[in-house]
Amino acid sequence: MKNFKQSILLVTAALSFGLASCHKDRQVTPVNTPVTDGLYVLNQGIFNDNNSTLSFYSYSSKQVTPDIFNSVNGRGLGDTGNDIEIYGSKMYIVVNVSSTIEVVNPNTGKSIKQIKLFNGTQPRQPRDIVFYKNNAFVTSYDGTVAVIDTAALTASQFIPVGRNPEQLAVANGKIYVANSGGLDYPNYDNTVSIINLSTLTVTKTLTVVVNPQNVVADNNGNVYVLSAGDYASVPSSLAVIDDNADVVKTQTNFDGSNMAIQGNNIYFITSAGKIEVYNALTQSVSNSSFITDGTAVTTPYCVAADGTTGEVFVTDAKDYSSNGTLYAFDKTGKKEYSVTVGINPGKIAFLKN
Protein backbone atom coordinates (compact mmCIF):
# COMPACT_ATOMS: atom_id res chain seq x y z
CA MET A 1 0.00 0.00 0.00
CA LYS A 2 1.23 3.13 -0.75
CA ASN A 3 0.96 4.17 2.82
CA PHE A 4 1.27 2.06 5.96
CA LYS A 5 -2.18 0.61 6.72
CA GLN A 6 -1.19 -2.33 8.88
CA SER A 7 -3.73 -1.54 11.57
CA ILE A 8 -6.75 -1.45 9.30
CA LEU A 9 -5.68 -4.66 7.61
CA LEU A 10 -5.97 -6.60 10.86
CA VAL A 11 -9.69 -6.95 10.35
CA THR A 12 -10.95 -10.44 9.51
CA ALA A 13 -13.66 -11.50 7.10
CA ALA A 14 -14.22 -14.09 4.42
CA LEU A 15 -13.55 -13.25 0.79
CA SER A 16 -16.43 -13.31 -1.64
CA PHE A 17 -16.34 -12.07 -5.19
CA GLY A 18 -19.03 -10.57 -7.37
CA LEU A 19 -19.41 -7.84 -9.89
CA ALA A 20 -21.32 -4.63 -9.43
CA SER A 21 -21.38 -1.77 -11.89
CA CYS A 22 -23.24 1.29 -12.93
CA HIS A 23 -23.78 -0.45 -16.29
CA LYS A 24 -26.18 -3.38 -16.30
CA ASP A 25 -24.49 -5.04 -19.24
CA ARG A 26 -21.10 -5.40 -17.55
CA GLN A 27 -20.34 -9.07 -16.89
CA VAL A 28 -17.70 -11.15 -15.18
CA THR A 29 -15.85 -13.25 -17.72
CA PRO A 30 -12.56 -15.11 -17.71
CA VAL A 31 -9.74 -13.85 -19.90
CA ASN A 32 -9.02 -16.69 -22.31
CA THR A 33 -7.42 -14.59 -25.03
CA PRO A 34 -4.51 -12.15 -24.67
CA VAL A 35 -5.55 -8.79 -23.25
CA THR A 36 -4.13 -5.65 -24.78
CA ASP A 37 -5.68 -2.69 -23.02
CA GLY A 38 -7.09 -2.08 -19.60
CA LEU A 39 -5.94 -1.96 -16.02
CA TYR A 40 -5.07 -4.29 -13.20
CA VAL A 41 -6.19 -3.72 -9.61
CA LEU A 42 -4.12 -5.40 -6.91
CA ASN A 43 -6.38 -6.23 -3.98
CA GLN A 44 -4.50 -6.67 -0.73
CA GLY A 45 -7.10 -8.87 0.90
CA ILE A 46 -7.09 -9.10 4.68
CA PHE A 47 -3.79 -9.12 6.53
CA ASN A 48 -2.73 -12.69 7.41
CA ASP A 49 -5.73 -14.22 5.59
CA ASN A 50 -3.67 -15.14 2.50
CA ASN A 51 -6.33 -13.83 0.14
CA SER A 52 -4.77 -11.20 -2.11
CA THR A 53 -6.31 -11.12 -5.59
CA LEU A 54 -5.78 -9.49 -8.95
CA SER A 55 -8.70 -7.96 -10.89
CA PHE A 56 -8.49 -6.99 -14.55
CA TYR A 57 -10.76 -4.46 -16.26
CA SER A 58 -10.77 -4.36 -20.08
CA TYR A 59 -11.33 -0.96 -21.69
CA SER A 60 -12.51 -2.48 -24.95
CA SER A 61 -14.93 -5.13 -23.65
CA LYS A 62 -15.88 -3.19 -20.50
CA GLN A 63 -15.67 -6.44 -18.55
CA VAL A 64 -14.00 -7.35 -15.29
CA THR A 65 -12.11 -10.57 -14.63
CA PRO A 66 -11.95 -11.02 -10.85
CA ASP A 67 -9.03 -13.00 -9.46
CA ILE A 68 -7.42 -13.39 -12.88
CA PHE A 69 -4.14 -14.63 -11.35
CA ASN A 70 -5.84 -17.57 -9.66
CA SER A 71 -7.93 -18.47 -12.70
CA VAL A 72 -4.86 -18.51 -14.97
CA ASN A 73 -2.30 -20.04 -12.61
CA GLY A 74 -4.43 -22.27 -10.39
CA ARG A 75 -3.13 -20.70 -7.18
CA GLY A 76 -3.50 -17.51 -5.21
CA LEU A 77 -1.14 -14.56 -5.03
CA GLY A 78 -0.48 -14.97 -1.32
CA ASP A 79 -0.76 -12.68 1.68
CA THR A 80 -1.06 -8.88 1.37
CA GLY A 81 -0.20 -7.80 -2.16
CA ASN A 82 1.34 -4.36 -1.77
CA ASP A 83 2.57 -3.08 -5.13
CA ILE A 84 2.17 -3.79 -8.83
CA GLU A 85 4.06 -2.28 -11.76
CA ILE A 86 4.46 -3.09 -15.45
CA TYR A 87 7.97 -2.65 -16.82
CA GLY A 88 8.86 -3.71 -20.33
CA SER A 89 7.20 -7.01 -21.14
CA LYS A 90 6.71 -8.09 -17.53
CA MET A 91 4.43 -7.22 -14.64
CA TYR A 92 5.80 -7.36 -11.09
CA ILE A 93 3.55 -7.97 -8.08
CA VAL A 94 5.03 -7.40 -4.61
CA VAL A 95 3.41 -9.62 -1.96
CA ASN A 96 4.41 -8.35 1.46
CA VAL A 97 3.63 -11.00 4.08
CA SER A 98 4.37 -13.89 1.71
CA SER A 99 7.73 -12.24 0.91
CA THR A 100 7.47 -12.91 -2.81
CA ILE A 101 7.64 -11.05 -6.10
CA GLU A 102 5.36 -12.55 -8.72
CA VAL A 103 6.67 -11.85 -12.21
CA VAL A 104 3.76 -12.12 -14.63
CA ASN A 105 3.02 -11.84 -18.34
CA PRO A 106 0.72 -8.78 -18.34
CA ASN A 107 -1.12 -9.91 -21.49
CA THR A 108 -2.11 -13.31 -20.14
CA GLY A 109 -1.81 -13.14 -16.35
CA LYS A 110 0.48 -16.18 -16.48
CA SER A 111 3.24 -16.35 -13.86
CA ILE A 112 6.75 -16.30 -15.33
CA LYS A 113 8.58 -16.71 -12.04
CA GLN A 114 8.03 -16.32 -8.32
CA ILE A 115 10.99 -14.63 -6.65
CA LYS A 116 11.24 -15.35 -2.92
CA LEU A 117 12.81 -12.64 -0.79
CA PHE A 118 14.12 -14.26 2.38
CA ASN A 119 17.22 -13.79 4.48
CA GLY A 120 17.89 -17.42 5.26
CA THR A 121 14.60 -18.52 6.77
CA GLN A 122 13.51 -14.99 7.70
CA PRO A 123 11.03 -13.25 5.38
CA ARG A 124 12.23 -9.85 4.24
CA GLN A 125 8.65 -8.55 3.77
CA PRO A 126 8.95 -6.62 0.47
CA ARG A 127 6.89 -3.46 0.04
CA ASP A 128 7.41 -1.42 -3.13
CA ILE A 129 9.17 -1.60 -6.48
CA VAL A 130 10.72 0.80 -9.01
CA PHE A 131 12.90 0.28 -12.08
CA TYR A 132 16.02 1.71 -13.63
CA LYS A 133 17.52 0.33 -16.84
CA ASN A 134 17.97 -3.43 -16.36
CA ASN A 135 17.21 -3.60 -12.65
CA ALA A 136 14.21 -3.61 -10.36
CA PHE A 137 14.62 -2.16 -6.88
CA VAL A 138 12.42 -3.44 -4.06
CA THR A 139 12.15 -2.09 -0.53
CA SER A 140 11.71 -4.61 2.29
CA TYR A 141 10.81 -4.20 5.92
CA ASP A 142 14.11 -5.79 6.95
CA GLY A 143 15.77 -2.46 6.11
CA THR A 144 17.05 -3.24 2.62
CA VAL A 145 16.50 -2.44 -1.03
CA ALA A 146 16.87 -5.54 -3.21
CA VAL A 147 18.48 -5.20 -6.64
CA ILE A 148 16.82 -7.62 -9.07
CA ASP A 149 18.07 -8.26 -12.61
CA THR A 150 15.01 -7.98 -14.88
CA ALA A 151 16.41 -10.54 -17.32
CA ALA A 152 17.70 -13.18 -14.90
CA LEU A 153 14.96 -12.41 -12.35
CA THR A 154 17.29 -12.96 -9.44
CA ALA A 155 18.43 -10.63 -6.65
CA SER A 156 22.06 -9.64 -7.05
CA GLN A 157 22.44 -7.64 -3.84
CA PHE A 158 20.64 -6.02 -0.92
CA ILE A 159 21.39 -2.38 -0.11
CA PRO A 160 21.01 -1.46 3.60
CA VAL A 161 18.81 1.61 4.18
CA GLY A 162 16.71 2.79 7.14
CA ARG A 163 14.08 0.99 9.20
CA ASN A 164 11.01 -0.46 7.49
CA PRO A 165 11.34 1.34 4.16
CA GLU A 166 8.14 1.99 2.22
CA GLN A 167 7.93 3.75 -1.14
CA LEU A 168 10.85 4.79 -3.30
CA ALA A 169 11.30 6.89 -6.44
CA VAL A 170 13.93 7.30 -9.15
CA ALA A 171 15.16 10.82 -9.91
CA ASN A 172 18.34 12.29 -11.38
CA GLY A 173 20.32 9.04 -11.33
CA LYS A 174 19.36 8.26 -7.74
CA ILE A 175 16.73 6.43 -5.72
CA TYR A 176 14.99 8.14 -2.82
CA VAL A 177 13.77 5.71 -0.15
CA ALA A 178 11.27 6.59 2.61
CA ASN A 179 12.24 4.85 5.86
CA SER A 180 9.07 4.69 7.96
CA GLY A 181 10.06 2.65 11.00
CA GLY A 182 6.41 1.72 10.98
CA LEU A 183 6.89 -1.61 12.75
CA ASP A 184 8.63 0.14 15.66
CA TYR A 185 5.62 2.18 16.81
CA PRO A 186 5.86 4.64 18.48
CA ASN A 187 9.58 4.87 17.67
CA TYR A 188 9.21 5.77 13.99
CA ASP A 189 12.08 6.43 11.61
CA ASN A 190 12.38 9.90 10.08
CA THR A 191 14.87 9.50 7.25
CA VAL A 192 15.14 9.32 3.47
CA SER A 193 18.03 7.25 2.09
CA ILE A 194 19.52 8.35 -1.23
CA ILE A 195 21.03 5.56 -3.35
CA ASN A 196 23.44 6.37 -6.18
CA LEU A 197 22.39 4.25 -9.17
CA SER A 198 25.93 4.08 -10.52
CA THR A 199 27.50 2.68 -7.36
CA LEU A 200 24.37 1.13 -5.78
CA THR A 201 25.33 2.57 -2.41
CA VAL A 202 23.67 5.02 -0.04
CA THR A 203 25.42 8.36 -0.47
CA LYS A 204 23.29 10.56 1.76
CA THR A 205 20.54 10.37 4.37
CA LEU A 206 18.07 13.21 4.88
CA THR A 207 15.89 13.93 7.92
CA VAL A 208 12.16 14.52 7.47
CA VAL A 209 9.08 14.36 9.69
CA VAL A 210 8.52 10.98 11.37
CA ASN A 211 6.98 8.04 9.52
CA PRO A 212 7.74 8.91 5.87
CA GLN A 213 5.85 6.58 3.56
CA ASN A 214 5.05 7.96 0.12
CA VAL A 215 7.54 9.23 -2.47
CA VAL A 216 7.09 10.64 -5.97
CA ALA A 217 9.33 12.66 -8.29
CA ASP A 218 8.28 15.37 -10.74
CA ASN A 219 10.00 16.51 -13.94
CA ASN A 220 11.15 19.77 -12.39
CA GLY A 221 13.94 18.52 -10.16
CA ASN A 222 11.83 17.81 -7.08
CA VAL A 223 11.15 14.73 -4.99
CA TYR A 224 8.10 14.74 -2.70
CA VAL A 225 8.06 12.74 0.52
CA LEU A 226 4.83 12.44 2.48
CA SER A 227 5.19 11.58 6.16
CA ALA A 228 2.20 10.26 8.10
CA GLY A 229 3.38 11.63 11.45
CA ASP A 230 2.60 9.73 14.64
CA TYR A 231 -1.22 9.79 14.30
CA ALA A 232 -1.37 11.87 17.49
CA SER A 233 0.73 14.94 18.26
CA VAL A 234 2.78 15.02 15.03
CA PRO A 235 0.67 15.76 11.93
CA SER A 236 1.30 14.50 8.42
CA SER A 237 3.82 16.54 6.46
CA LEU A 238 5.06 17.03 2.89
CA ALA A 239 8.78 17.46 2.27
CA VAL A 240 10.08 18.79 -1.06
CA ILE A 241 13.63 17.66 -1.83
CA ASP A 242 15.91 19.23 -4.44
CA ASP A 243 17.16 16.20 -6.42
CA ASN A 244 20.31 18.03 -7.51
CA ALA A 245 21.58 19.34 -4.17
CA ASP A 246 19.83 16.58 -2.19
CA VAL A 247 18.53 18.95 0.45
CA VAL A 248 15.06 19.40 1.91
CA LYS A 249 13.83 22.68 0.43
CA THR A 250 10.53 22.88 2.28
CA GLN A 251 8.65 20.80 4.80
CA THR A 252 5.14 21.77 5.82
CA ASN A 253 2.11 20.23 7.50
CA PHE A 254 0.00 18.58 4.81
CA ASP A 255 -3.23 16.64 5.08
CA GLY A 256 -2.79 13.80 2.64
CA SER A 257 -1.92 10.17 2.01
CA ASN A 258 -1.39 7.78 -0.88
CA MET A 259 -0.17 10.30 -3.43
CA ALA A 260 0.18 9.66 -7.17
CA ILE A 261 1.75 11.94 -9.76
CA GLN A 262 0.88 12.51 -13.40
CA GLY A 263 2.60 15.36 -15.21
CA ASN A 264 2.48 18.37 -12.90
CA ASN A 265 -0.50 17.11 -10.91
CA ILE A 266 -0.05 15.22 -7.67
CA TYR A 267 -3.21 13.55 -6.36
CA PHE A 268 -3.72 12.97 -2.62
CA ILE A 269 -6.37 11.33 -0.48
CA THR A 270 -7.21 13.64 2.42
CA SER A 271 -8.32 12.68 5.91
CA ALA A 272 -11.80 13.95 4.96
CA GLY A 273 -11.94 11.36 2.16
CA LYS A 274 -11.52 13.86 -0.67
CA ILE A 275 -9.16 13.73 -3.65
CA GLU A 276 -6.95 16.80 -3.60
CA VAL A 277 -4.76 18.02 -6.46
CA TYR A 278 -1.38 19.65 -5.83
CA ASN A 279 0.38 21.59 -8.58
CA ALA A 280 4.07 20.72 -8.84
CA LEU A 281 4.86 23.96 -10.68
CA THR A 282 3.29 26.34 -8.19
CA GLN A 283 4.03 24.07 -5.20
CA SER A 284 0.49 24.57 -3.92
CA VAL A 285 -2.93 22.91 -3.84
CA SER A 286 -4.76 23.68 -7.08
CA ASN A 287 -7.98 21.79 -6.36
CA SER A 288 -9.13 20.77 -2.90
CA SER A 289 -11.89 18.50 -4.22
CA PHE A 290 -11.24 16.84 -7.58
CA ILE A 291 -14.54 14.93 -7.76
CA THR A 292 -17.08 17.42 -9.13
CA ASP A 293 -20.29 15.45 -9.66
CA GLY A 294 -21.10 14.48 -6.09
CA THR A 295 -19.92 10.88 -6.37
CA ALA A 296 -19.37 9.61 -2.85
CA VAL A 297 -16.41 7.32 -2.21
CA THR A 298 -16.86 5.74 1.21
CA THR A 299 -13.24 4.91 2.01
CA PRO A 300 -10.78 6.18 -0.63
CA TYR A 301 -7.84 3.79 -0.58
CA CYS A 302 -5.80 4.29 -3.72
CA VAL A 303 -5.58 6.95 -6.43
CA ALA A 304 -3.94 6.68 -9.86
CA ALA A 305 -3.96 8.74 -13.06
CA ASP A 306 -3.72 7.63 -16.68
CA GLY A 307 -1.52 10.11 -18.52
CA THR A 308 -2.75 9.10 -21.96
CA THR A 309 -6.43 9.79 -21.25
CA GLY A 310 -6.37 12.19 -18.33
CA GLU A 311 -8.59 9.83 -16.37
CA VAL A 312 -8.24 9.54 -12.61
CA PHE A 313 -9.03 6.26 -10.84
CA VAL A 314 -9.96 5.96 -7.18
CA THR A 315 -10.53 2.74 -5.25
CA ASP A 316 -12.93 2.38 -2.35
CA ALA A 317 -12.05 -0.07 0.45
CA LYS A 318 -15.49 0.40 2.08
CA ASP A 319 -15.25 -1.45 5.44
CA TYR A 320 -11.84 -3.07 4.76
CA SER A 321 -13.39 -6.55 4.75
CA SER A 322 -15.85 -6.46 1.83
CA ASN A 323 -15.22 -6.29 -1.89
CA GLY A 324 -14.11 -2.83 -2.94
CA THR A 325 -15.03 -0.59 -5.87
CA LEU A 326 -12.97 1.01 -8.61
CA TYR A 327 -14.21 4.42 -9.80
CA ALA A 328 -13.11 6.04 -13.06
CA PHE A 329 -13.38 9.82 -13.44
CA ASP A 330 -12.69 11.99 -16.45
CA LYS A 331 -10.21 14.85 -16.19
CA THR A 332 -12.95 17.20 -15.00
CA GLY A 333 -13.76 14.99 -12.02
CA LYS A 334 -16.97 13.46 -13.38
CA LYS A 335 -17.64 9.77 -12.89
CA GLU A 336 -17.42 7.61 -16.04
CA TYR A 337 -18.08 4.18 -14.52
CA SER A 338 -17.48 1.99 -11.50
CA VAL A 339 -16.85 -1.73 -11.09
CA THR A 340 -16.51 -4.12 -8.17
CA VAL A 341 -13.02 -5.40 -7.40
CA GLY A 342 -11.55 -7.28 -4.43
CA ILE A 343 -10.93 -6.62 -0.75
CA ASN A 344 -8.74 -3.57 0.00
CA PRO A 345 -7.88 -2.53 -3.57
CA GLY A 346 -4.51 -0.93 -2.96
CA LYS A 347 -2.74 -0.38 -6.26
CA ILE A 348 -3.49 0.07 -9.98
CA ALA A 349 -1.34 -0.76 -13.02
CA PHE A 350 -2.21 0.38 -16.54
CA LEU A 351 -1.76 -2.01 -19.45
CA LYS A 352 -0.89 -0.24 -22.71
CA ASN A 353 0.06 -2.12 -25.89
Looking at this structure, what is the CATH superfamily?
YVTN repeat-like/Quinoprotein amine dehydrogenase
What can be said about the biggest beta sheet?
4 strands, antiparallel
> Reading side by side through the largest sheet, how are the strands ordered?
3-2-1-30
CATH topology: Methylamine Dehydrogenase, Chain H
Termini separation = 26 Å
Number of helices: 1
What structural category arises from helix and sheet content? mainly beta
Query: What's the count of strands?
Result: 30
Tertiary shape: globular
Task: Provide the gyration radius in Å.
Answer: 19 Å
Named CATH architecture:
7 Propeller
Level-1 CATH class name: Mainly Beta
**Low-confidence stretches at least 5 residues in length (pLDDT < 50)?**
1-31
- Our estimate of the beta-strand percent is over 45%
Helix content: under 10%
Mean pLDDT: 91
Count of distinct structural domains = 1
Summarize the structure in words.
This protein is mainly beta. It has one helix spanning 68-73, and strands at residues 37-43, 53-58, 64-65, 81-87, 90-95, 100-104, 111-116, 118-119, 122-123, 126-132, 135-140, 144-149, 155-160, 165-171, 174-179, 191-196, 201-207, 212-217, 222-227, 237-242, 247-253, 257-262, 265-269, 275-279, 284-287, 300-305, 312-316, 323-329, 335-343, 345-352. The strands form 8 sheets. A 4-stranded antiparallel β-sheet has the order 3-2-1-30. Strand 16 and strand 17 (201-207) form a beta hairpin. The longest helix is centred in the first third of the chain and has 6 residues, at 68-73. The radius of gyration is 19 Å and the shape is globular.
